[in-house]
User: Fold these one by one.
Assistant:
Number 1:
Amino acid sequence: MRHTVILCLAGTLALSACGTRNGDAEVQRAMQDLNSIESASLNDVMLTVGDPEEAVKYFNGALAGNPDRIDLQRGLAKSLVRAGRADEGVTTWKLVIAHPDSNLDDRVEMAEAQIRANSWDDAAATLNAIPPTHETFDRYRLEAMIADSKQQWSKADSFYQTAVGLTSTPANTMNNWGYSKLTRGDYPGAERLFTDALRQDSTMFTAKNNLILARGAQRKYDLPVVPMTQIERAQLLYTMALTAIKQNDVTTGKGLLREAIDTHPQHFEEATRALRALEAV
């Protein structure tokens, strides 16, 4: 009987030990999963709201202990580009591309970094090496920019049109397309695109200012009907005044400068200085 009790106790202890070991392993796995989730979340934060230079330091530090992790390499490459260090970003993107887990989107990102580094031919070569079946918004947006740089207007228009159809937030792309039309001298086409961009995002001041440039180039010296704050109204009147003056419509320009000064809720130094200079002539 005593031997039976001992054997039972031994069996119980063995099962208990196995349970402890299994429990420890599960805890370790759970901790690893939690650390991975926390790391991924921190990576996302650093890429979106973090200061670019701080993000560069973070990813460099993380890579020191995990040099082969492609997510950290990507994070560093994106952060370098955001920090205005595009040349270094290109170098890091090349490391990402060489990683066995890289994908075609990485090549698109590298092409954007090359454009920011003013390496337009390299960017074109990078995009040309991507299969045409990889149809993404970013790919066509960059293709449009490269076509613009080569003054291949028909191709640029085609790429912009495709890019706009591949995103739910096309305002920035419409604004860029409009600016392309503006530089070509197609002022009515530019005006339409800036107006379309503002329908998508009525807060985009760049599109508002570009719209004034397009209208001013056609000698349309009245403000368009778009939402604007009082300060924006003053600034847009100032842009319109300068456009008029550039086209030798000096009297109109002076009137617009006075209106801009009167409209601005604070002292409008730039407009005041411009008006004084004109009245001194």
Number 2:
Amino acid sequence: MSRILVVEDEERIASFVAKGLRSEGFTPTVVSDGITGLDYALSGQFDLIVLDIGLPGMDGYTVLERLREERSTLPVIVLTARDSVTDTVAALEGGAADYMSKPFRFAELVARVRLRLRATGQTVVNEDLAAGDVRLDVRSRRAFVGDREVDLSAREFALAEVLLRHRGQALSREQLLSHVWGYDFDPGSNIVDVYVGYLRKKLGPELVTTVRGVGYRAG
């Protein structure tokens, strides 16, 4: 089970990321300042870091710089509200493996976490997901019904992936919104219902069941 260090000072975002990573089978640890984050990162106890830039004590760029000075090869995914080209280049040239701007979609974040862990030789579980005739190849982001490949948009695939990873479990619309559309979602939106309709048309009406008063369940 991969251990993920989340260095993020916004409590709402840190809680959102940690809860989501835990539901996907990872073991997250959250710290809220750069100095503690650097100490934890150098402890040898983690497989990957999700790192904010605007941190108290020591900003994310300095954390990155110190990590590389210590010859640490720990993969770092920068997660920040700063989205200029200059910021992106600074993070990547400073040693980050990846860069995501806030607001972000959790499904995209966890896909990038898995990608970076694979690049380091980490074993990542649940690369293929299936329910009935439907199969998702998570590694290549491809969907199949039987032997037929089905074209899904990135958001459709993310929704199908969340449902199949929690197969048999009733997920609320709010849970699906937060996983697929991000922590800045509109809880009054009907976008989940719309996208469930898309999945039913493309992957079959039996894939997703409506759970009255709760939300949806796959399988």
